[in-house]
Write a structure and sequence with these properties.
The chain is of the alpha/beta class. Helices cover 38% and strands 20% of the residues. Helix 3 runs parallel beside helix 5 (117-124). It is globular, with a radius of gyration of 15 Å.
Length: 139
Amino acid sequence: MSQSLTGHLVVPVANEEDARVTARILDGYEYDDVTVVHVIEKGEGVPDKLPVEQAEKRASDAFAAFRGFIPEADNEVAYRRDVVEAIINIAADVNASAIAFRPRGGNRLVQFLSGDTALKLVTEADRPVISLPEEDGNE
């Protein structure tokens, strides 16, 4: 029996603006269910990038922005150092059919220095990964 590719999507978002743009793009496609994911990066022995309260507020703002376009979306927050591993684990936990994401800009050097999260997501995921297109400028 085959499974729908867009039956249940897990969609990671980084912040409020990313969530808004991602939801606007995703809203132009058909899907059944969506779980929005925000990963709060924890330091594991090194200082956190943001205080937890500030990071949780960022997650809350991102979820609200996403629901401005897709109100029925569920949300999940993960506290992990490895962002890609957190996204993949949540996709497994919610039995997602695929992970859909919007690649973020940056030149090759920036991508190399940051570990290229998009490349890791595509190569390490245990389910299909869908790269959403850039905005077409028509808002």
